[in-house]
Amino acid sequence: MTHRIAFFVFALAVLLAGCRALQVDRAAVVSADDWLTEGATPERTHAYPGPVAPPLQELWDYNAGAGFGAVSPLIVGETVLVATRKGEVHAIDLATGRKAGMNDFGEAVEGTPVVQSGTLYVPLAWGRRVLYAYDLALGRTRWRVEGDPIQAGVLALPGAIVVADAGGHVRALAPADGSERWAHALEEGRGVVATPVLAGGRILVADDQGGVAALDPGSGTLGWARQLDAPVYAAFTAGAEAAYLPTTRGRFYALDAATGAVRWRLALPDTTVHLGPPALQGDLLVFGASDGVVRALDATTGAVVWATRLPDALTAPPLITPEWVYVGTMGRELLALRRNDGEVRWQYTLRGRIKSAMAAREGHLVVLAEPRFVHYFKSASVPDDVATR
Amino acid sequence: MVPRRLAALFVLLCAGALALPAHAQYNFYFGRNKIQYENFDWHVLKTEHFDIYYYPEMLELAEYGAAFAEEAYGELENRFNFSLNNRVPIIFYSSNLHFKQTNITSGFIPDGVGGFFEFLKGRVVIPANGNLHRFRRVVRHEMVHVFTYNKVLRVMRDHRVPPDRFLPLWFTEGLAEYWSGTPDHQHEMVIRDAVFSNYLVPLENIYRVNGTFLMYKQGEALCRFISETYGEEKILALIDALWIDKDFTRVLEWTLKEDLHAISDRWEAWLRAQYYPTLDDAQVPSLVAGAVAAEGFTAKPVFYRFGDGTRTVYYVGNRTGYSNVFQVEVDSLYRPLGDPEVLVSGERNDRFEHFHLFESRLSISPGGKLAFVTKSGERDVIHVYDLEADAMGPTYGFDDLIAVYSPSWSPDGRRLAFTSIDRSGFSDLYVYDTERGVLDKLTDDPYDERDPAWSPDGTRLAFASDRTTVGHRNAYNLFTYTLADGRIDYVTYGEHHDFSPRWSADGRLLLFTSARRDDDGRYGGQDLWVAEVDAGAPAVAPVPAGATAAAGNLPMLAAEARPQASPFGQGLGRARRLTNLTTAAFDPVWAEEDRVLFTAFENFRFTIRHLPDVDSLIAHPRDVEEVDLVAAGGEPWAFERLGLESGAERLPYRRRYSLDVAQGAVSNNAIFGTSGGAVLAFSDLMGNDRLFVQIFNTARGQDDFLRSLNVAVSRIQLHRRANIGYGLYRFGGQRYDITDPDASSEFPLFWETIWGGFGAVSYPISKFRRIEVSTSLSWSDKEIPAKLIDREALLLSNAASLVHDNALYGLNGPIDGWRASVTAGYTTDIRFSNVNYYTLTGDVRHYLRLGRDVTIASRAMGRVNEGREARLFFMGGSWDLRGYRLFSVRGKKMWFTSHELRFPILRQPSLYVPLLAPFGIANLRGALFFDAAHAWNDDYNEVRRQLNVGETLGAAGLGFRLNLFGGFVLRYDLGYRYRDGFRERSDGLFKQFFFGYDF
Q1: Residues of chain A contacting residue B153, judged by C-beta atoms under 8 Å apart
Q2: Which of A124, B261, B467, B725 is at a distance of 20 to 30 A from A148, taking alpha carbons?
Q3: Average model confidence (pLDDT) for chain A?
Q4: How many contacts (CB atoms, under 8 Å) link A and B?
Q5: Is A208–B233 a contact, with Cβ atoms under 8 angstroms apart?
Q6: With b meaning 16 or more CB within 10 Å and e meaning fewer, what string describes B529-550?
């Protein structure tokens, strides 16, 4: 009998050891190097101000157990957080690449969660409960809300968590308890796939029929609205005065953040081209597309600075640094393009397609790739003994 | 229609491992033959994303195909927003007849199949048919499937959802059509007809037409509707959302944010809004043209007036499952004077193996010789039937020509013009002189020539072709070819589909069909037109039968691919539209009495009709079109090719095996205990070479492990006409063998170890007949402790069979034709003479069709095993002797006869009770049956009721057959059981429930 109990206890211990709860030490302590939201900032610039010079060296990879949508990995302190299409959020130790914890939210995560004040806000793409506020320090759910499934990422603002769902509702929720601060309904039949963006002090929401709405962050009041001639499915970005929106039909728009006026428009001859999410740093706007071309535009004028053709489609946003542009392709390639002329100077083949955003930190890069792997790269310019902070 | 030869060979090999010809008693020995006439010399053309497999004769076509595939890849990468991470193997065949020989699928491939994509190895298989536009479209269609499959697989794997779902067939096929090009005239024809005839299947019930041509076209219309109404992005969104629910209806509702019924209603309204306005002034074929033949599928009419004044219409039709040439006599108003009669029975013998029902026209010479085409063996041949003598005439086949279409007699009845596809895969014009036996090729280029028609003066051929300068936009115009100098001239010009020209008797007019785009860009109905040829020139008298050929008409190769813009000095082409049909007309021919005959498509049927008052229609046409033919001049068009100079790489094909199936099984049995095993199947990319590895163990304990190890390795080679199989095996352990004469009859369990090897050859004489030969040599050690038998033997076993099968299958089993098999075998112990017996079996099954749905099926079978340790045959159960338990009749010799009257009870139960439809209930049939059998060993009358031998047994009663999902048949029989020569009847009715097709 004693042996049986001992065996049971041992088995339970083994079982529990493999199911560590999702917890992050000092999650509320935010560093400037942390990557807490999709695209690094509420403007979704996908820009990293530090150097990440190629060649990169792969330090580790991690099997997350399922594939990824268009989500971005997040970096909180010494931990990488990754959400999967199986509905799990994995915490991975940055130094070792080992699992630091995991929580199953039950339904697929398509949009990128966000971390604010030690709480992880996870949007779910199916089911009744569609947004979870998860306390990273305590490892437990603080609150959850019901609604239409959320395919887009979450926007965290001071005092509000903003989500836009597949049913066309935009809601601002109180971070403390999930209570609704305000709500705005888009036109009937419209849904949101692209992550909302903060632009010029307004929340921009673009829908799957090409409608763009600018909302007041405090009240949800409609500032301006514009109808584009093509749907917006991919994430977009914003600069100080303009928002930059890719569409599914070969059209790219720069809208004035204050008025919604079209500042410039890029129209490809082929309207079947799906333009990918852009990255923005300074005046350089870079994005890939399904035609395999990485285009760099002058963000002010829309003029093409350079264009580099790659063999495969690009659906993931590039990551832009002062010297380099990193792009991941549907052909399994991770490439470094020289920022000033787009020349490919380094490439690395992964096990599967790269269709998710990247995150960077101190000369390191986190890349998500099919079938279900998180890859962690170190720039050659970073000394060997500095894997992490 | 499932080819059984491969299955038969595999079963033969597995069963052959037992080294006994007794395998022949299983029901796998029938089936038609899929014959590999050609031993293709495969090569590989490597492009950026594809491995293109081709044979050297079709290199040019393969280079076109490679360019089409890469072009499609670029487009679909954008549409799917997705890239493929693996190279896609594409196997091209230069004609449909070569394609039919492929081993990549074991099934028979019908005429209409343009290609397929299979999931196992991700192979795309596409034949050419002489039309580069269609080839390009099929390449695109299959590439959409490749992208869809890979995308869906990725979505499911990303979400870790088990692969228990896929997109419905209407969506995948509809999308493949939609994204492979703009709607063609066939699409418009079917959808217009479905809307006008009101047989459009609502979205909720679209599964009812799964797999049909209608489903393809409705699926295409649905995808277009989704794209135009909700946005093209929703197509991708549907695929991306497949993970959310097994039921695609929910996926559809969630993605489009509407209720399914609302979507369906909107779709139907969308279609009606497009097509109803075109009804104004349109003519329904059945209202403007009288029916000559309206039953079944009928096409390709021709008319002949006999010397006694009899008017007869001939056509190709399929009323009962087999295609035939039919004849029907008509009166002066072209009303049929009786039921159509079969003139030539097709698809039951080697000579008329297969009719190309909708592809090849008929022609009658002035002397009454009917020319028609069938497949016969590896190629198409032209048959001649002498209508005046009412006898079959000669058959013409040509070594280098694979597919042959639409022969047309010269006015002197001496020469035949036709189009043909050779091994290169391109369609060209040919003329064959039947008296001199000389074949001449008139054109030699990648353009698609069709439907030649000889002018009444014998100097020119009219034909349809995409060689027009607008041919790059998939247009076909009419041309004439002058035999004297090889000059090709335009007759019509424009972005039309002008087909099937036929000269008027005076040589001034060409009757033809044409489909043209309406103002909205969609194709309208396919109408009857006449074009003027040689306007202003003197009328040309028809050349009487038997007259010598006109001077200067020796055929020669076309002077150049580019046709002349101005025919005979004219600059104007004038054509008159005779009809404004709601749907489509095909294959018009001039008849007498001011009429033309044509095939009409209406209400999803093809019927032969006659249009009266043609002279008046010509004089007062619906439209007159005048085209400046001088404007037709221009550079000939050509598609791009992707060859070595474009960066592709050519390599010889090297056979490499890859895993097809790996299946393991563990079972627990009260007698044998736990046993387990696995089967692995490998094959090469062409499916020509297959390896099977079987391993299983039936040990009941550790001690028995090696003794009970069973291993078999076999190889089947299918690339030659003769299929060859061979292998090695080791079977050991306890066996339960009801055929062993030494084993206990109640419980035939004993130990046996067999080592050996075997070989088998299956040689198809034709599609319907084959010879099978097998041999094996094995060491057998048998122990039956209860009977103190310990017998060793070195067994040599040989068997030969002759099999015939031309049976036509209905949903529940054969309904027409006959099949038979005879087998002779000899098994001997060449070392100890412990075993020595011969085997003779015969089985004949005949199906007499009393009506369309009623068949009398008869079967007679005899089996003899005679000699030392001769095996027992067995019988009993729902598949043969009904009313008796499965395999409960066992004897070394037996005869059996069975007769059934098979009749329909409910053809489509789901039409009456829609609730049944989701359960796949396809039909309900009945059978009145009578069975009789007698099994015996040494004495015919020695009764042993344990084995049911020594007395004549029988059964009679009524059975019901229910087909589920079109492929699984449930059987329920009830009746009386008889013994002792039918003198003894069982007390009550027996009831037997099982599954399987009728015999």
Answers
A1: none
A2: B261
A3: 93
A4: 77
A5: yes
A6: bbbbbbeeeeebebbeeeeebb
The per-residue pLDDT for B539 is: 36
d(CA B786, CA B800): 35
CA B403, CA B380: separation in Å to the nearest integer? 5
Instruction: Write down the H helix ranges in B559-646.
Output: 614-619
Q: What is the DSSP string of B636-682?
A: PP------GGGT-EEEE-----EEEEEEEEEEEETTTEEEEEEEEEE
How many angstroms away from the CA of A61 is the closest CA of chain B?
17
Burial of B619 (0-12, 13-18, 19+ CB in 10 A): exposed
State the pLDDT at residue B849: 92
Return the pLDDT at B28. Answer: 53
Across the interface, whether the CB atoms of B82 and A313 are under 8 A apart is answered: yes
- Asked if B142 and B126 count as a contact pair (C-beta separation under 8 A), the reply is yes
Cα–Cα distance, B803 to B845 (Å, whole number): 12
Strand (E) or helix (H) holding B139: helix B132-158
B233 CB neighbours in chain A (<8 A) are 208, 231, 233, 248
Tokens linked to A108: 């697929």
Q: How many CB atoms lie within 10 A of CB B644?
A: 10
Instruction: Give the pLDDT confidence score for residue B564 in this predicted structure.
Output: 64
Taking the C-alpha atoms of residue B390 and residue B384, their distance in angstroms, rounded to an integer, is 11
Interface residue B244 vs chain A (CB under 8 A): yes
Tell me, yes or no, if A371 comes closer than 8 A to chain B by beta carbon.
Answer: yes
A221-226: average pLDDT: 97
pLDDT at B964: 83
Rounded distance between C-alpha atoms, residue A106 and residue B160, angstroms: 12
| Residue of B70, B159, B243 to mutate for A, most A C-beta atoms under 10 A | B159
Do the Cβ atoms of A236 and A246 come closer than 8 Å?
yes
- Within 10 angstroms of residue A1's Cβ, the number of other Cβ atoms is 5
Confidence check: pLDDT of A184 > 70: yes
List, as own/partner pairs, every contact residues B886-889 make where C-beta atoms lie below 8 angstroms and the sequence separation is at least 24, other chains included.
B887/B738, B888/B948, B889/B933, B889/B935, B889/B947, B889/B948, B889/B949, B889/B953
For chain A, give the percent of residues with pLDDT over 70. 93
The token pair at A343 is: 């020349």
pLDDT (tens digit per residue) in A90-142: 999 999 999 999 999 999 999 999 999 999 999 999 999 999 999 999 999 99
pLDDT lower than 50: segments of chain B: 1-27, 535-553, 567-569
| DSSP 8-state code for residue B152 | H
Residue B404: the pLDDT is 97
What is residue B735's predicted lDDT score, i.e. its pLDDT?
Answer: 80
**A227 — contact with chain B (CB < 8 Å)?**
no
Residue for token digits 């592809």? B359
Tokens 């029907």: give the residue: B328
**Which of B154, B159, B233 lies at the smallest CB-CB distance from A248?**
B233
What whole-number distance in Å separates Cα of residue B923 and Cα of residue B937? 42
Of B81, B83, B231, the CB nearest to A231: B231
Give contacts of B259 with chain A, Cβ < 8 Å.
none
Q: Which of residues 286-325 of B touch A (CB under 8 A)?
A: none
- The pLDDT assigned to B76 comes to 98
pTM for the structure as a whole: 0.91
| Nearby residues of B26 by Cβ (< 8 Å), 6 or more positions away | B11, B15
What is the pLDDT at residue B544?
35
- Residue B245's closest chain A neighbor by CA? A126
Q: What's the pLDDT at B628?
A: 84
A 16-75 residues with CB < 8 A to B: 65-69
